[in-house]
Amino acid sequence: MKIFFKSSVVAFALFTLILACQRVPLTGRKQFVGLVSNEQMITMSFAEYKGFMDTSKVVSLKAKDAEMIARVGGRIKTAVENYLIQNNYSQVIDGYQWEFKLVESKELNAWCMPGGKVCFYTGILPICKDEAGIAVVMGHEIAHAIASHGRERMSQAMAAQGITQLGAIGAGVATGNQQVMEIAGQVLGVGSQLGFVLPNSRKQESEADKLGLIFMSMAGYNPQNAVDFWQRMAEAGSKSQKPPKLLSTHPADETRIADLKAQLPQAQKYYQVYSGNKK
Ligand SMILES: [Zn+2]
Questions:
Q1: Is 99 a catalytic residue?
Q2: Residue 99: Cβ-neighbour burial (10 angstroms; 0-12, 13-18, 19+)
Q3: Is residue 2 in some structural domain?
Q4: What angle, rounded to 10 degrees, do the helices at 178-188 and 149-160 form?
Q5: How far is ligand 1, taken at its centre, from the CA of residue 4, in Å?
Q6: Does 98 fall in a domain?
Q7: Which residues have beta carbons under 5 A from ligand 1 (an ion)?
Q8: 82 falls within a domain
Q9: What's residue 140's pLDDT?
Q10: Which residue segment(s) compose the domain that 225 sits in?
């Protein structure tokens, strides 16, 4: 009886652990996300996003650049959603309300919050150079969201502090636990959600690069543009005294560029399928 009790406790613990894990689409990497639900993450994300947009200068969609951001975003979103639905991953985008905005800011930065809220800063446009360059950044940022990197980091940070559940979410924000609020601020805070706050971030960066290459290719943008973009980014970083925001969290070092080059052939296959379908 006692043995049975012990083994059932172990089985229960294992079962909980399995529930707390999921696999990242395309890369198949197993990740621990269970301490925060997708819904909770999105609720917090939308509150953070609204706060940011309310105090930012959003460029009108009538402007050519803002229209281009929305167009590229829409193309990649459609391609990614089709892939997720066809491969039984549609739960990843449950509750998503996509938006693609351009805001006035000199910072070289862009981000996608959980729930599909994408923002580009005007400062990064000269480095993007054209539509394909925007697709590089768009693919990468959307990849962070699709790979549930925010939930993963939130769950890891909570586990590290011994917190086993998020607690109530009221009026669009997490209430109660101060520690949890601080973690959410670190993970979701505009501009910091991409930072190397936690040790796992480097792994998430290269995963976002890999997925981003494939996502842009699925939407019909040549992935070769990613190598060119990161080379321009590295150049911009070496010229400026204060490294651009995006570079402080996304080093455009030789390793990154070499990794991208190595991943090109796989991404090219998706690009060829897209091009073939268009003929
Ligand atoms: Zn990133």
A1: no
A2: middle
A3: no
A4: 150
A5: 47
A6: yes
A7: 194, 208
A8: yes
A9: 95
A10: 24-274
Per the structure, the count of domains in the chain is: 1
**Residues in the chain, how many?**
279
Distance 263 CA to ligand 1 centre (A): 16
Tell me the three-class secondary structure of the chain, residue by residue.
Answer: CHHHHHHHHHHHHHHHHHHCEEECCCCCCEEECCCCCHHHHHHHHHHHHHHHHHCCCECCCCCHHHHHHHHHHHHHHHHHHHHHHHCCCHHHHCCCCCEEEEECCCCCCEEEECCCEEEEEHHHHHHHCCHHHHHHHHHHHHHHHHCCHHHHHHHHHHHHCCCCCCCCEECCEECCCHHHHHHHHHHHCCCCCCCCCCCCHHHHHHHHHHHHHHHHHHCCCCCHHHHHHHHHHHHHHHHCCCCCHHHHHCCCCHHHHHHHHHHHHHHHHHHHHHHHHHC
Residue from 81, 141, 152, 205 carrying the catalytic annotation: 141
Calculate how far, in angstroms, residue 142's C-alpha sits from the geometric centre of ligand 1.
Answer: 9
pLDDT along the chain (279 residues), means of 10: 54 56 92 88 90 95 97 98 95 96 93 94 96 97 94 85 70 59 73 44 88 97 96 85 70 85 96 82
68: number of Cβ within 10 Å:
18
- Residue 182 is predicted with a pLDDT of 76
Residue 174, pLDDT score? 52
- pLDDT of 267 reads 97
Residue 279 lies in a domain: no
